[in-house]
Each structure stands twice: as C-alpha cells, then as structure tokens.
Amino acid sequence: MAGEIDKKSSFSNWYNEILKKANIVDVRYPVKGLYTWHPFGFKLRNLVYDELKRLHEGTGHDEVRFPLLIPEANLQKESEHVASFEEEVFWIDRAGKNELDEPLALRPTSETAMYPLFAEWIRSHTDLPFKIYQIVNTFRYETKHTRPLIREREISSFKEAHTAHKGPEEARKQIEESIEIYSSFFDSLGIPYFVSKRPSWDKFPGSEYTIAFDTLMPDGKALQIGTIHNLGTNFSKTFDVQYEDEEGEQQYVHQTCFGISARCVAAVIGVHGDNTGLIFPPKYAPTQVVVIPIIFSDEDEEEILQTCRDVKRELDSAGIRVEIDESEDRPGKKFYKWELKGTPLRIEIGPRDLENEVMTLVRRNSGDKKQKSLENPVENVEDEFKKIDREIAKKAQDNFNENVREIETTNEGVKSLSDGGAVIADWCGKKTCGKELEEELSADILGSVVDSEATDSCIKCGEAGENKILIAKTY
Amino acid sequence: MAGEIDKKSSFSNWYNEILKKANIVDVRYPVKGLYTWHPFGFKLRNLVYDELKRLHEGTGHDEVRFPLLIPEANLQKESEHVASFEEEVFWIDRAGKNELDEPLALRPTSETAMYPLFAEWIRSHTDLPFKIYQIVNTFRYETKHTRPLIREREISSFKEAHTAHKGPEEARKQIEESIEIYSSFFDSLGIPYFVSKRPSWDKFPGSEYTIAFDTLMPDGKALQIGTIHNLGTNFSKTFDVQYEDEEGEQQYVHQTCFGISARCVAAVIGVHGDNTGLIFPPKYAPTQVVVIPIIFSDEDEEEILQTCRDVKRELDSAGIRVEIDESEDRPGKKFYKWELKGTPLRIEIGPRDLENEVMTLVRRNSGDKKQKSLENPVENVEDEFKKIDREIAKKAQDNFNENVREIETTNEGVKSLSDGGAVIADWCGKKTCGKELEEELSADILGSVVDSEATDSCIKCGEAGENKILIAKTY
After folding, report:
1. Which of A16, A325, A460, B388 would you call most buried, defined as having the most Cβ atoms within 10 angstroms of its Cβ?
2. Which domains does chain B have, with CATH numbers?
3. Each residue of A278-334: pLDDT tens digit?
4. Which residues form the Aminoacyl-transfer RNA synthetases class-II family profile domain (chains A, B) (predicted)?
5. Chain B contact for A127, CB < 8 A?
6. By the CB < 8 Å criterion, does B57 face chain A?
7. Which three-class secondary structure state does DSSP give residue A326?
8. Contact flag A94-B97 (C-beta cutoff 8 Å)
9. Where are the beta strands (DSSP E) in B279-382?
C-alpha cells in the first residue's frame, strides 16, 4: 500500500488503511461503532457468508428470520442472560409521538426472541432435532474502543444458529457437529484457530459451557471468531420449550446455539494480507483473476487484446470471476491496483507471450511467476488456485504455530506474551488460580484445550493439573 | 386447504390461513406488526429476492450495506421528507444505563443515512452514474391495521436502490431502466401490474415525482408493489452531493431511488394461489417437483421406488429442486400436502406406469395430467415448467384485465368499484377534482397511466382532460 505501513509492527494502522484503500468498509458514518459496507467489501462479505450458509444448509439447518425488537419482559426472563446484557442493550421507548406500552430492546442476540416461538413449533419428539439459523444485524452498546468488523455497535452480519434436541447426548453431538462446521469454514478460509472451552466465568450467560474458536491477529492478540454454546435446559425451562417423548411424557428440550460475526472477514483480511494489500484464498476473492494486456506498440495491440479477451471468455464460461483491465494506466499501476484488492492471480499477455503461445501467470500471495500454454487457461488457472490455497493456509498456520508456546512458569509466560501470541500452561481448574494467572500475565485465559489433559501440576498452585489452558492478550 | 376458505370471497381469511398452513410466516410474535419467517417462507423469499438481486446486478447496481440507525439531525435535514415520517419513526434515546447524546431513528428508508456518504464517494463526473442497492430491515410505526408481508412495522426485506447522475436526462433514463427492472421482475413472477405516476399529493416526500407499480389482489383492492422516485436535486442540495463536471465546475447530482418490499411475496401468494393452497411459477417454488411412488403391493415396491429415485437423481443433477415423498402416508394425503405448498409438478410412478415405461405428470396449477416417457425426465419436466409459467401468467393477466374498466361518470365508478378492481377515467389534472373524485368513489387515485392522454373531458369538472387516471380501493 501507498504509505508503507508495516502490517506486523503497526497492525492497527495497517488494518484501518486497508479497509479504506481497498474499499471494504467506510468508517465515516456519524454514529460510533456503525460502519458502511462498500460494494467491494460487501462482495467479499457475501462470498464468505455464502460458504457459511452452505455449511449450515448441508447439515440440515434451515434459514429463518426473526424480528429485531424484543419486548423487555422477554429479554428479562432468563436472569443470568439479561444481567450480562444489561449494560449493552439499545432501548426503544417511543415511536412517532407515542410512548410505547413496553420498552423494546434491539436484539443483542436472539435466544429470548426465538425460544417463546420454539415452544409453539416443537411439539413432539418427531420435531427433533430442530435446527435453524439466521444472518441478521444485532446491536450491542459496546463501551470498549469500537473497530470495524471487530467490535461494532451494529453487528451488521451476525450468523446465529439455534438447535433443540431430545437429550444431553444429542445436544453434545450437535456441539461436535457445530465444531466441525466452524472448522471446515475456517479451514476453507485458511484461518488457523484454537478450539477451547471457555472458563466458567467467561461462558455465554445462561449456557452450561461455551466452546470458542480464536485466531491470532498480526499484532499477536487473540481474536474470538466463533462461539458454540451448550444451553442444556436452562432456556427451555424458562421459555417452556417441551416435547412429547416416545412414551407420551413431556420433556424439556436440550438446546445449543452458535454464532459467528463479521470478525471472520476481519480475520481473512488481517491474517492473510501483506504490506502491499489484501490476499485472499481464490474461493473468496471478489475478482479471482485479472487479465492485463502488455502492449508496447500499436501493431501488437489488436492481437494481444483479442487474446486477452479470448482467455477471459474461457475463464468466464468456467464460472471463474475474471476481469480484464483495458484501462489507459501503465501496467505497473494496474499491477498495484489489483494487488491491493487481493486478486489471487494475474495473467499478463504481451508480445513475447504471444510469440511463444503462452500467458504469464503471477500469484498474488508469493509473486511467483510462470509461463503456461494458452491452450488450457481454465485448467492452468485452477491448478494455480489450488497451489495458492495451500500456500496461503500453510503460511498462516506456520506463523500461528510459531506464536504458541508451552510455559512452565508465570515468568516465562510474561516474557513470551510480550512477543505476542498465546501460551499453554497446566492448570488445576480452580477459578482463583485462573484469575491470578490472568492478572499476573496481563492476559486472558481463552479456555482449556478441548480434550487436553495436564502433563504437569498447576502452574499457579502446584497442585495436580486438570488440563491445559490457552492464555493470550485478546481483542 | 382444510377448512374450505374461499379465496375470492374471504381473501383476508384465506391469506392468513395459507401463511399459517404452508409455513410462510408466523404471526405469533408478541410485538404488533413484527413477524417471523418460517424456513419454507424464507426459502420462497430468498428465491424471489435472488431474482431481484440478479436484475440489479445485471444493470450495474452494486450491493452495499448501510447502518440501521440514523442520527436525528440527519433525518431532519430534508424538511418535506422528515415531516412525512414524523409519525412513523421508532426512536432510541438510551442504551445500557446511558441516555444517548442524540436520539437515533430506526431507518424508515435510507436517503438520510446514505446521502451524506454519497457526498464523500462521488467526486467527479467519472464517478457517475453511481448505482447501489441494499436489502435490509426498515421500520415504520404503522397505525393502520398491520398484516404480514403487506403492512409491517419491521419491514423485514426492503430492497432499496439509490442512484446519482450528471443531469435530469440521465436521471430520466434511470427511471426508465428502473421501470424495466421492475417490469422484468413482476413478469417473471407472473404478477400483472399497473405502472402509473402518483398524483402530486401522494409522491414520495422530497421527490419530484413517483412512478408506482400496483397489482390487484383477489379482494379487488390494489396493492402497491414497487415505487420509483425521481429526486431531482432536492436531496443532493440538502446533503451537498456534488461532482466536478468535464469543465471543472461543481454540479449537484440528480438522484433517483426505488424500492420493493416483501409485498412482492404477498402478491405471488395472493394472485396465484387457489382454494387448495399455494401456486408458484416453477422458478420460485422452493420445491419444484415432487416424485410420489404409487405402491399397491409389496412385489412392485422395490422397482417403483428405484425408478422414482432414478428420476429424482436425473432431475437433481439438472439443478431442479426435487423431492421424493417416501413417507408412509396414503397417496391422497401426499398429494394434498404438496399441493398446499405449491409444488408446480407432481410425478407419480405406479405399476401401470412402469409397465408402459412412463411417468404420470400432474400440474399443480391446472390439475392437468399426462403420461410421458421415462426416458427424458429433465426435458419433459422443463417443458411442463414452461407451460405452467405461461398458464399461470395468462390466468393472472386475464383476471386482472377483467377487473379494469373505463368509466365515464362517477356513478359508473361507484358501481364498478363495488365489484372491486380498478377504473380508468379522464382527468383534468387538478388536485381539487382528484380529491373530490377520491371522496365520491371512496377510493384512491393510483396515478395517471404513464404516457396516457385523455380522450375525453375531465370526469369531474368537464374541462379539457389531461390524461387517464387509475382509481381503486387500496391496501
């Protein structure tokens, strides 16, 4: 990018600059924490959310749409739940020139909007499992520093899924399925992640436990990118969601819910981009290929342009999102423009290429350059896409792995976390030790590594370790 | 439908019943005018809006997403605009435990949210035409009787497009393009419509004029299903949206905006459905084909099921949305279920069909039944789809035409409107005559037929007629 902002050392500046330069979102809306998606940014957003939808539909989750406004009485029914959102809710008390009979909350999340209707929809064991999702705007009056796509007061693209099941075993299996959905999703985005069980003091309010996905951003801080909650029967008892079992008995359903916000888009931008601009896995690039004619003289012009258009047409017809840049700009300026926008593959066709009946392919992620026959553009491009996918994911994973270190003492932890990243330690499982550790390390416990067992005693109290925990500075 | 509600004579009951029985939307949400889309309804909604998106993208409109909340000061900048929405706006004054510095409105429409940013985005004549759209929830505190998909307080699926142009001629051409987009859209839905210019007292507040699309519902009332507004420079002057023209001069852009809500879905349901249930053009049917095995004896069962599955597989692979109903229900019950849901084509395969190597095709819209060879299921189904499309559209158009009558006296008008439908009359163009006419007919002037000229004198004052107007009772 112009301005030469280094992504690693000045990530926050780099991030703001790339959102602006590449037209992802506009931050100039006159209300704090509300942002506007540009056309380019929204194309990216749609490509990412299309995959999320596909994964939900493929596992039997149906899309629905619930209202935004929640009556105060509904929101307040589950006490633990409401307590945690109390500070964060936007309230409507009036409309037109009337005071409303009851204040309406803008949903911070939809449990209390949905579950009263679940009680109507779910009658019998044959209605289970019941699995739905929606992609909506939700609202939280964040008091921390707001940031586009990361901490918004209008969460513009909240995917929330909600499920109901016969018993705890079925709910547990759903948690596994949800972990699989999110793993597939982030794998396809090339985003590395931790899966951990949040400590009890950091679980979703009203849930039995929370499983979280976190990634590491270039500034070394962990970003929560997805959460999965086992709600047990807490909400079904509050909202009376019962079904008739095989024996004719009424039973409370066991529920789960799991959510992802536009942080998944922030992660793609932050994890893969470089000092030149955006980098995308080809599947998610709004433009996947740009064809650039390299013209030195008038006599070549027509033939080169024709060849470029032929290549474009072939790629087009294979469903590849390809553009041809026939603008008057110099090639260098064109390269810069499409690199900034993260176009995974550039095809250059100049006089020497024509002579040799080849095209020159340049990968955005590595700058790697090669000649390929003009004969099979689709096949050649798809081969490159596969390589790009692998390279991007590997680079991100290697970088992630380098930034996770096992520690045996808190001193080691302090030192390690000063370089950013996450540390892993053995823990007895007690909240007092956890809280002290967070304070000493000036960091947060992400959670216990799923299915981990301690190999040593608790780093804090020296008593028998229960499992391994991840600790990092967080967003 | 069970209950035998007649669509024509008890449309309101029929409509409520079909929304419920076919799982379109649930009306049991505890806030007036807010509704919940069921999975089946939302599939229909997505199919309809996908076509709307395709038509916008195909004409160079880019999708964006603006925030929901509008600061009071912005909303109040355009005086005519705000005056008309004053009674309809939901207001947020507090969040968490804080009073907000400035009240925030839930958007009733997005002009005042968008155009301050347009002033940043549009700089030069090379940025024009500028064309964007979004599909969002908007809010109006309706005081009239609310109705799902027709008059909602949370308009759950508002498509609003906004454009900016160099001058009045370019804006006028955009209006033509927008009329074409909406015409293509409603044509593909098989929905007949009037295109008229709303009278001056009924135009969009802040616009120069409004072109509207209206259809006729089975109760004989007109339903506005789309509007297109020429904003001239009213808003660009208010929000200072200027561009530098070819001569280096600053000029105000000429703007248009045009919107469609879920009323398009209400129209599809209302116009095409019958006493048995829903009827859809195949393109919009969540399930396009259902295959039903007709099994009389155990010995046939395996072969019939296998043939059904083969047919399904072939249709599947051609991208046709097909289901096979292998439930234990009797065929009659299955027929009823899929008819209620508007599945355009039923394929029955029984022992006699197998013997003759045919399948039986039954069209939902007409009950028309025929045998076709099992050889080319895809081709046969696509042929039927085309016929269904034509038949549905023709039936709707014939019915529409029958319900539009030219009148020469107000008495004729009163009589004609008592049967429902719309009447056409010559008009001098004066508001006094228009208003008197509306009162005498207990109906609303939809507008003047676009490009019409009067063939007689004004029905009201007898002076020279200006053009022909449409009058109907309205939703």
Report:
1. B388
2. 11-272 (3.30.930.10), 282-388 (3.40.50.800), 404-472 (3.30.110.30)
3. 999 999 999 999 999 999 998 899 999 999 999 999 999 999 999 999 999 999 999
4. 33-281
5. no
6. no
7. coil
8. no
9. 289-293, 322-324, 345-349, 358-363, 369-373
